[in-house]
Design goal:
Number of helices: 3
Distance between the termini: 74 Å
Strand content: 15-25%
CATH topology of the largest domain: Nucleotidyltransferase, domain 5
Structural class: alpha/beta
Shape: elongated
């Protein structure tokens, strides 16, 4: 591509401007890849969002007769565990060791079939390995785990 200058005193002066578009194409290729990846995550997030229905007919409430059960396990500095349970608003607390924890949770889960999640909190000096052991034990019992900042 050649441009002629209006201010050139003679006709022989020409200015050549070369535009390198290879690097621009490379940038757009990478940019399009990121945009496509981000768009797929946005669509997944949009599917998970709850949308209010358009049905205006009155609904009857379903009342569950199963009491709500919850469990919280706090691990202190000496790796002693304090298990707090609640069933239907009645709270109980007991100290357990890792060896007997599986049996106690199994008994509690059998009595309260709606228990799906256990909350865990730990003192600052508890090692990561001890928490991993606890979480793997709970996962073997088919329970999901939520970490909490402080005990309930």
């Amino acid at each position: 591509m050649s441009f002629k200058s209006k201010f050139a005193s003679n006709e022989g002066m020409q200015q050549d401007a070369a535009i390198n578009i290879a690097s621009i194409i490379d940038c757009f290729t990478v940019l399009i890849t990121y945009i496509l990846a981000a768009a797929s995550f946005l669509s997944l997030g949009a599917l998970d969002a709850g949308i209010a229905g358009t049905d205006t007919s009155p609904k009857t409430a379903i009342v569950s007769t199963v009491p709500v059960a919850s469990m919280h396990i706090h691990v202190n500095e000496e790796n002693h565990m304090q298990m707090n349970t609640s069933v239907g608003g009645q709270k109980a607390q007991s100290n357990v060791e890792m060896a007997e924890l599986s049996d106690k949770i199994t008994v509690f889960k059998t009595a309260n079939v709606n228990l799906k999640t256990i909350t865990i909190s730990a003192a600052d000096k508890v090692t990561y390995l001890d928490l991993v052991k606890l979480v793997s034990l709970l996962r073997k019992l088919d329970l999901s785990v939520v970490f909490s900042g402080k005990p309930e």
